[in-house]
């Protein structure tokens, strides 16, 4: 695992093996979903390392003990629709976390993000938000989602961006826009095509998750 300027890139043999499987064109949707889930679980565990804990006094069948619980209220904000592939894994870690869906798509010609849906209450009932966006290509969608969360009232210091894969350029764009943002990513690819696709990448994550690839 390597960390630089609030960006942490995970490095683990299990993650590398799952990523390799995700990259394969022949990987079916079921296995693709399972791979995204497994990597998201790794990301969620690592991104939770610095969450504040609060202690309490409890009792086991044998005797008293000092336990702890996570103090901040956690919210999950998946970017539709690909972010939904990460949500179940995070709910395994935070079963009571509310899930607020953010609808953003990238316009094919301009590659600019377009917001079309938000499920955010008027006042944030959470302290920390995990923003789930499995693929950061140009960075535009992630930045648009961050704008929505900041406008909602969540400070950037309380947002953690979790992504399975990012391009170097996209990651740099997000970092430059929000240098204080925590970013947790499984791997970073070197190239971004003229069409705004990460290379070698994973392909269209949403289509591969939900088996809607065009033949």
Automatic annotation (TrEMBL):
Its cofactor is Mg(2+). Belongs to the UPRTase family. This is uracil phosphoribosyltransferase. SUPFAM superfamilies: PRTase-like. Residues 9-212 form the Phosphoribosyltransferase domain. Its EC number is 2.4.2.9. Keywords: Allosteric enzyme, Glycosyltransferase, GTP-binding, Nucleotide-binding, Transferase. InterPro entries: PRTase-like, PRTase_dom, UPRTase/APRTase. The keyword DNA repair does not apply. It holds the Pfam family UPRTase. One of its GO terms (cellular component) is cytoplasm. Pathway: Pyrimidine metabolism; UMP biosynthesis via salvage pathway; UMP from uracil: step 1/1.
